[in-house]
Every structure is written in structure tokens, then in C-alpha cells.
């Protein structure tokens, strides 16, 4: 459990640090006179390097040990967060967002390797629920605290404070490996990479992951600006509304992970449970993306809250499904590929939204596109993904 909690804390930190920019964008936009297109590129820059480095991060985690890879990645992204508070130009901020993506690319491949190796199969749902709570509550705390601190101190000190605090995670992480020495050894046995790439389940999960992330990253990167510029919220009100939505997201993640394990132990089908939750997530995404922009303010926020709770419920399954299918020997590389394709959405969604807003002056078509992308998620998780059970890898 110590391992799972530390991994959850690392993911919590990573989502605070990657989400700082979205909270600060309305202020940065005015200070640097940035266009909507430039805002979209800033939102996408992180995901370009994040995606490119995902497969190498999975390979490094298998080859040299997920403990070491996680520690190095956290150091890199903490330094990038600190330095972002010092820059004064669009180009410099763009480059540091890219460096942040390099550091954070290790999180899901390394954490999946650690969980698949150190957690019994009967507790994978709960373990992934705890980790999901960490990375889902990160935006809630980061947005609320960041919004208040930006209003009081300005945006630059927020990056300095959060970057310095992130580095402190490395101290207790060293103690984890002392108590779990096996985590410090690379384990490169298992299927070859080509064998992993031939799995139908990998591509079904990758498509589903992309579809879920598209709407999630649209919300994460653009909703603060939407609430302020379109709905007329103040910085503090925006931070309070979004932090509440992200908190529901985290509660849904932990609750679904906890319940999933208990349902499966009671004899229910893991395949039916996981696929049912994934289908519900994408159906909710279709309805709620439309409702956020089309409905009056109160109903719009209700759609946001419902969407965040349901996508939180789907978060543990996103990685538990892969850990079950791939097993300990292939989980890091499998998740590296899946998370790479899933986070292509982080490149496409912020940039596409920026260009749509720049061309039309409105957010409606951007959210309509996000609703349509959710259809791909149903295809991936339900129709392409095979039955969820461990793959018998050829030796």
C-alpha cells in the first residue's frame, strides 16, 4: 500500500504541474498579448513531447527499473515547472512546456509497471482507483489553490511554489525502494515489442483512451478561459467551480476502483463491468459536451459536474484493463503505446479548439467536435477490445 500511495502522490503532483498553465492562461494571455492560436499551441506543446517520449519511457521502465525512471522524470518536470515562472516570452514558455512533457511521460508507463508487479490481481481495481484519485484530484486542488494564489500573488510565484514542492516527493520515494528493493531492478523478460503491437486489445484500448482524453483535455486546457471570457466568471469563482468538478472526478475514480474489485470478487464478469463503465463514460461525454455550451449557466455547470464524475469512474479501468491483459512483464510497454495514442488527444484537442475559436469566435463547434469523438470511444472499448483476461504470451 505504501507503493500505491506514493505512486498516487506522484500522479497528483504531475497533474497539478501540467494544469497550472490552464489556470494561469487568462492572466498570461493579457500579459504577453497572446492570440487564441498561441494559447492552443501552448496547451498542445506539453503533449507533443509527452506523446513522443511515452514509448521510450515504457521501454526504460522495463529495462532499467520503474523506480529510477519515475524519480528522474519527476525531477525533470519539477525543474521545468520552476523555470516557467521565470520566462517572459511565448517561445520560452512553449519550450518549457515541452520539457515538462518529457518529464511527465514516465508517469503512467512506470506506475503501471509498479502496480502490475507489486499489487495482487484481486486488488488491481482498488489500486488503480487510488492512483486515479491522485491524478484526478490534482486538478481540483491545483485549480482551487492556483486560482486563489494567482489572484493574490500573480502567476509566476505559483509556478515557483509548486515546482519546489514537487521536488520534495523524491525524499520519501527513496524510502519506498528501501522497503521494496525488488522495485529497483529492471525486469526485461516477457514478450517482444512486436508481439505486443500485434494485440487487438492494445489498439482497442488506444482508440478508447484517445476518445476519452479528447474531451478531458478540452476541459482541462480551455474551460477556465471559457468560464471567464464567455460565462463571465471571476478568477476565484472559476477556480471554485472547476475545483468542485475535479473533486467529483476524483471521487468517481476512487469509488469505481473500490466497487469494481468487490463486484468481480462477488462473481460478476470483469469484462462486463469494465466495458459497461467505459460505454457509460462515452455516452455521458456525448450529452455533456453539448450541454456545457448549449444550456443556461446552472444546467451547463450541472453537465460539467456529471461528466467529470462519470469520466472519473472510467479512469481506473483505463489502466486496469491494460494491466490485466498485458501482465507485469509487458505492462509498461503496453501502457507506453496506449498512453501515447491516448495523449495524441492532448496535442489535437487544445490546438484544434484554439483554431476553431480563432476562426469562428465561438466555442460551440469545438465542444460539438468533442461530443463526436466520444463515438470512437464506444467503438474502441466495446467492439475492438477483446474479452478482458490475461494474454498468454508466447515465449
Q: How is this structure best described in words?
A:
The protein is mainly alpha-helical. The protein has one domain: Growth Hormone, Chain: A. 83% of the residues lie in helices and 0% in strands. Helix 1 (2-32) packs antiparallel against helix 8.
SSE blueprint:
Elements: H1 2-32, H2 36-52, H3 54-64, H4 66-84, H5 90-104, H6 107-118, H7 124-153, H8 155-167, H9 170-179, H10 193-197, H11 200-229, H12 235-265, H13 270-294, H14 297-326, H15 331-342, H16 344-360, H17 364-384
Helix pairs in contact: 1-2, 1-4, 1-5, 1-6, 1-7, 1-8, 1-11, 2-5, 2-16, 3-4, 3-6, 3-15, 4-5, 4-6, 4-8, 6-14, 6-15, 7-8, 7-12, 7-14, 11-12, 11-13, 11-14, 11-15, 11-16, 11-17, 12-14, 13-14, 13-17, 16-17
Which terms summarize this structure?
mainly alpha; Growth Hormone, Chain: A; 395 residues
The whole-angstrom Rg is 20 Å
Determine the CATH topology. Answer: Growth Hormone, Chain: A
Q: What distance separates the N and C termini?
A: 32 Å
Order of helices and strands: HHHHHHHHHHHHHHHHH
In oligomeric terms, what are we looking at?
A: single chain
How many β strands by DSSP? 0
What's the CATH first level?
Answer: Mainly Alpha
Helix content, binned percent: over 70%
Overall pLDDT, averaged? 89
CATH homology group: MFS general substrate transporter like domains
- Profile the largest sheet: none
Low-confidence stretches: none
Structural class of the secondary structure composition?
mainly alpha
Amino acid at each position: 500500500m505504501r507503493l500505491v500511495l506514493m505512486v498516487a502522490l506522484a500522479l497528483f503532483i504531475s497533474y497539478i504541474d501540467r494544469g497550472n498553465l490552464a489556470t494561469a492562461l487568462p492572466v498570461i494571455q493579457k500579459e504577453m498579448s497572446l492570440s487564441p492560436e498561441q494559447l492552443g499551441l501552448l496547451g498542445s506543446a506539453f503533449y507533443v513531447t509527452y506523446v513522443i517520449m511515452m514509448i521510450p519511457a515504457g521501454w526504460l521502465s522495463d529495462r532499467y527499473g520503474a523506480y529510477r525512471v519515475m524519480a528522474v522524470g519527476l525531477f525533470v518536470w519539477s525543474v521545468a515547472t520552476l523555470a516557467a515562472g521565470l520566462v517572459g516570452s511565448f517561445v520560452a514558455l512553449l519550450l518549457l512546456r515541452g520539457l515538462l512533457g518529457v518529464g511527465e511521460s514516465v508517469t503512467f508507463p512506470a506506475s503501471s509497471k509498479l502496480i502490475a508487479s507489486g499489487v495482487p490481481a484481486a486488488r488491481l481495481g482498488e489500486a488503480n482507483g487510488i492512483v486515479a484519485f491522485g491524478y484526478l484530484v490534482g486538478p481540483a486542488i491545483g485549480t482551487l489553490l492556483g486560482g486563489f494564489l494567482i489572484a493574490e500573488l500573480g502567476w509566476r510565484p505559483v509556478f515557483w511554489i509548486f515546482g519546489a514542492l514537487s521536488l520534495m516527493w523524491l525524499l520519501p520515494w527513496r524510502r519506498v525502494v528501501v522497503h521494496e528493493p525488488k522495485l529497483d531492478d529492471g525486469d526485461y523478460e516477457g514478450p517482444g515489442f512486436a508481439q505486443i503491437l500485434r494485440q487487438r486489445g492494445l489498439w482497442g484500448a488506444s482508440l478508447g483512451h484517445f476518445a476519452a482524453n479528447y474531451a478531458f483535455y478540452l476541459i482541462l486546457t480551455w474551460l477556465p478561459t471559457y468560464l471567464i471570457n464567455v460565462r463571465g466568471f471571476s478568477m476565484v469563482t472559476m477556480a471554485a467551480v472547476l475545483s468542485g468538478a475535479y473533486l467529483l472526478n476524483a471521487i468517481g475514480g476512487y469509488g469505481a476502483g473500490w466497487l469494481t474489485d468487490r463486484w468481480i470478487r462477488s462473481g460478476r464478469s470483469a469484462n462486463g463491468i469494465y466495458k459497461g463503465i467505459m460505454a457509460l463514460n462515452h455516452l455521458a461525454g456525448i450529452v455533456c459536451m453539448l450541454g456545457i455550451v448549449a444550456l443556461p449557466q446552472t444546467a451547463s455547470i450541472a453537465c460539467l459536474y456529471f461528466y467529470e464524475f462519470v469520466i472519473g469512474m472510467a479512469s481506473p479501468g483505463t489502466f486496469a484493463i491494460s494491466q490485466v491483459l498485458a501482465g507485469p512483464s509487458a505492462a509498461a510497454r503496453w501502457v507506453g503505446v496506449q498512453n501515447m495514442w491516448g495523449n495524441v488527444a492532448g496535442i489535437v484537442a487544445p490546438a484544434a479548439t484554439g483554431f476553431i475559436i480563432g476562426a469562428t469566435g465561438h466555442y460551440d463547434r469545438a465542444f460539438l467536435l468533442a461530443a463526436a469523438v466520444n463515438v470512437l470511444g464506444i467503438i474502441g472499448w466495446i467492439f475492438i477490445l477483446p474479452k478482458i483476461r490475461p494474454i498468454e504470451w508466447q515465449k
